[in-house]
Amino acid sequence: MDVVSALRTFLRVAQTKSFSAAAIDLNLTQPAVSRQVSALESHLKTRLLHRTTSALALTAEGERMLPMALRVIEAVEALGEASGAEAAAISGKVRLSLPTPLGFFLSDRLAGLLERHPALQVELLLRDEPSDVVANAIDLEVRLGPVCDSSLICRRIGWTTAFLVASPAYIEGRDTPRTPQDIKDHSCICYSRGGDGRSWSFSSGAEEVVLRIEPRLVANNSMAVHRATLAGAGLAVLSHILAGSDIEAGRLVKLMPNFPPTRLPINVVYPSRRNIPLRVTTVLDFLVQAVRGDVLMASSAPVRTIPGPLTHTTASEGCYFFPCG
């Protein structure tokens, strides 16, 4: 039995939670995928997957096997990349998980990377909450704010920028909030990303204020919050990747410029520092350069104005509030 091939097949089945989907990804037949997983289970003398006619799930042994299988595949691929003339060719798929607005930001820039490396494939996973990186076979994931999982390698690559905004139609006839305390008099739209999303944090540089919000509207998707804000449903904390062009065009008004939302770090996490495939380090370097090339993500310094021409970035997730980004 080819143990490496069987481990690779097991990882893909665990990631897709489907023999048929794994077969498509691996260019195999479904029976071949099933046989490889069964052979691996026989070799290891343990069941890795629970199978029913309608569902597929990892056993406890399968859960423990995932990170070990991933390390084996990474080591084998690193050996291949380090030997022969093919070492210079960056090839294969990289699974990159990141918040939706940052996914839009990168999508505008990926063409150059893919053109430079014709054998490279990038799969963007736009998710509004952190993933189980190992179980989902994710190579890189962007997380905003503090990272509490000590089992992952964490690298800070930038800082978030978000604005408190509303549409001109909403502001018309209402008192414009000038301090965080004024927000209580307004309808608010909250983003429930990774938590209840009902606390907002603002910082003047010298003072930080955390507010508990009683929202009129809550959504678990940043685009829904953005559209509701444009439609005049109330105040929202939005990433400038979403709000920047609308602020410039006058479709949204930036509020409390001297007391903006608190900025938090943008982190990239990944399972291991050892034996990282060349394709993954290539995408990681691209991601770092893209983020640091944006003036509103490159520095932790307070942001008072939107520089022009505007370069879109992201917003933040943290302990206090979850702006859309």
From TrEMBL:
PROSITE patterns: HTH_LYSR. Residues 1-59 form the HTH lysR-type domain. GO terms for molecular function: DNA binding; DNA-binding transcription factor activity. SUPFAM superfamilies: Periplasmic binding protein-like II, Winged helix' DNA-binding domain. It comes from the Bacteria. PANTHER family: HTH-TYPE TRANSCRIPTIONAL ACTIVATOR TTDR-RELATED, HTH-TYPE TRANSCRIPTIONAL REGULATOR. This is Transcriptional regulator. It comes from Mesorhizobium australicum (strain HAMBI 3006 / LMG 24608 / WSM2073). The lineage of its organism: Bacteria, Pseudomonadati, Pseudomonadota, Alphaproteobacteria, Hyphomicrobiales.
